[in-house]
Fold this protein.
Amino acid sequence: MPGPLDGVRILEFTEIIAGPYGGMLLSDMGADVIKVEPPWGEPWRFAQEFVPNESRNFISLNRGKRSLPLDLTKPEGLEIVYKLIPDMDVVIINARPDVPHNLGIDYETLSARNPRLIYCDNTAFGRKGPHSYRPGYDLIVQAMTGLMASEGKVLDGVPQQIQSTAIADYATGITIAWAICAALYHRERTGKGQMVETTLLASALGVQTGRFIQVAAVDDERRKDFLELLGRMRANGTPFDEIHRQYREKLSPRVGNIYYRTYQASDGVLAIACLSDRLRKRAADLLELDDIRFQPGYDPMSEEARIFGEKLVAEAEAVLLTKTVEEWLKLFDDVGVPAGPVRFVEELIDDEQVIANDLVVELEHSVAGPLKMVGPMLTMSDSPLEVKLASPALGEHTDDILTSLGLGEAEIQSLRDAGVTR
């Protein structure tokens, strides 16, 4: 059965993570995605390159696409884009706001050639405001949106980025795919294309709903007091680790948290997650800990609570050290307390749970050879997603795409000789 986006054609002008990831998700849904990149290749091909023009990073973000290298600074390259646009449903671009106009691939120019076109424009900070002109990567957006400082990782007095994944980039890739699907649905009802704008800034704030909120009754005074304190500390040159300590105490108190955290067991580390009193009571009973904070009317912010919490944490940590991870998982399972082992992602390609849910796909790359990677994140009963191709080698589909536009072999070779394509 065809995927839900079977027949949808996408022209992608993207590089690095957010845009490519969004296009890859749409490819998994059945869309035909043509990736336009410079004749020398987009930068992510060379991030830890292991064979010419190929890297694990690029391969992981561009499966299912066809490669069309074009030098868009040359009129011949731009003309090929203009020939493709009438048959396209979607354009995805991630760049500074000035780049599409400078290259001649902005929404106004392309939609004039195809009014039904859905044009997804991703920028770091949006098209308005004092930072709109700036380039930005995930690291910068993590820093500017509180993701980094709020995460709690401080090394040598300096806040650390979230290293396991470029969270702003990947969240934006999902947003790109979500927005384009919605725009396609809107077009089905109205016949109209439109411009869709996504930003790393919005995605980074969007995944922090529990923090990026101000409820007047509980937040106004506390936030005002902290911002005044923050201003004084910065003016006085207070080291970040002290600022961070004050932040945790005033805005992020976790007094005596034993129910939602990781623990060292006798042979490894496990996590437990109890987000209701019912689950917390089960965990305390299993660990044979007397948590007086279950008593009605107990003030969790009192000094008594702080002293008791520190004592309870030490007791819980000592208990968890007495058994192996597997022994604790069995005990927690028996009483219905959510728990799991702490693993490295490299362990999961062979994990039985991951495999059972079809989350590993095997592909053959035309240059790199056989590979395994994570499969589609969702399933659909009547329009299943399918991974059809590995990422394209640079220029792998140039002849097929240009031939479909009516160009002959001699014309294509002439474009290669002129450095327009590859």
About this structure: The two ends are 34 Å apart (CA to CA). The mean pLDDT is 94. The longest strand covers residues 32-37.
